Amino acid sequence: MNKKYKNALFTLQNAGLSKTPQRIAVLTSLLEATTPLSVRDISQTLAAKARIDRVTIYRILSLFKQHGIAREIASSGGTNYFEMASLENPVHPHFNCRNCGELSCMEPLTFSQSRQLISSQEDYSVDHIEINISGLCAVCRNATKLQKQQNKQV
Amino acid sequence: MNKKYKNALFTLQNAGLSKTPQRIAVLTSLLEATTPLSVRDISQTLAAKARIDRVTIYRILSLFKQHGIAREIASSGGTNYFEMASLENPVHPHFNCRNCGELSCMEPLTFSQSRQLISSQEDYSVDHIEINISGLCAVCRNATKLQKQQNKQV
DNA sequence: TAATTGTTGCAACTCTGTTGCATTATTGAT
DNA sequence: ATCAATAATGCAACAGAGTTGCAACAATTA
Ligand SMILES: [Mn+2]
Ligand SMILES: [Mn+2]
Ligand SMILES: [Zn+2]
Ligand SMILES: [Zn+2]
To answer: According to CATH, what is the number of the domain B1-89?
Structure first.
């Protein structure tokens, strides 16, 4: 509890972000979570302690993403989830249950390893595996390069 | 053109689905597409020929998914995309440009292979790689099993 | 033809996520 | 500690994706 709180304070300090109660609360939620959280999850978790507007949560998570503190996970349900991003918690696959909707973290294996692992466990039933890579496509990458060059010339 | 239309007819026939103009139109769109399409994409594409309600498109795509004809791809933008699913077009990674939003298909490689391929091409800039696996978690799998057993006993 | 069944279109709705703006809190200097 | 400058929050209103109920319509079958 208190340890997570201190961790939250340190993380904000380290990123040069102001330590508002809202940011500390959201960060503490992410640190305490065992699965990725949706904005709704965070909102409900924090509702007991303080009433933080969901817009604020969105803005805080967006900020955390920009600073590499948190990472966003898309789900086909339309809701996005967030989890802590760090060297100790590298990018990894997630398992999304079609029935209860739970999103859980998996070991950071490769695609084929994950598939093998999952099929070897009788308990799971895999419908679909998806790899999504995001970044800049060739066109946009070049456009950005050109812009930078032009800015230098001006 | 006509070839895609015939392919659409055959696919519906093969799945035992009635060949309505709306289903043929949506299926033809998917067959002609070079990238996964959103409901909005399909709606706009078909707007010239016929006015199909977006609810109908949702229902048709949901049906296609159930019959393994189409596959859904989640994107962090909140919009989901659809593409043909078949043995010739197996599950594969997708690249989502953060700038122009385009979603393009990648070769069906493993996670690590995709990462290597992408980093070896100067043009691309990768922000984030994500693997999402969906299906039934251990709890729901067991619950389903129990239900089936109980149904047999009744 | 008439009854049955399945499909579509429309309206209304829920939910996620975003934006503009006024209010309030944090920070850093005095 | 006080104050001004700046940053963050809350509120309201909004846009867009996706869903549901229901009536109208189309296809099938008797
Ligand atoms: Mn995770
Ligand atoms: Mn694809
Ligand atoms: Zn489950
Ligand atoms: Zn692009």
So the answer is: 1.10.10.10
CA of B2 to the centre of ligand 2 (A): 23
Radius of gyration of chain A (CA): 19
Nearest CA distance, B106 vs chain A (angstrom): 10
Average pLDDT, chain A: 84
By C1' distance from the Cα of A58, the closest nucleotide is C17
* pTM, entire model: 0.86
Q: What is the CA radius of gyration of chain B?
A: 19
**CATH 3.30.1490.190: does it fit domain A90-154?**
yes
* Cβ count within 10 A of residue A43: 18
pLDDT of B34 over the 90 cut: yes
Domain with CATH 1.10.10.10 in chain B: 1-89
Sheet containing strand B103-105, strands side by side: A103-105, A94-97, B125-136, A125-136, B94-97, B103-105
Spatial distance from the CA of B58 to the C1' of D19 (Å): 10
Contacts of A83 in chain B (CB under 8 A): none
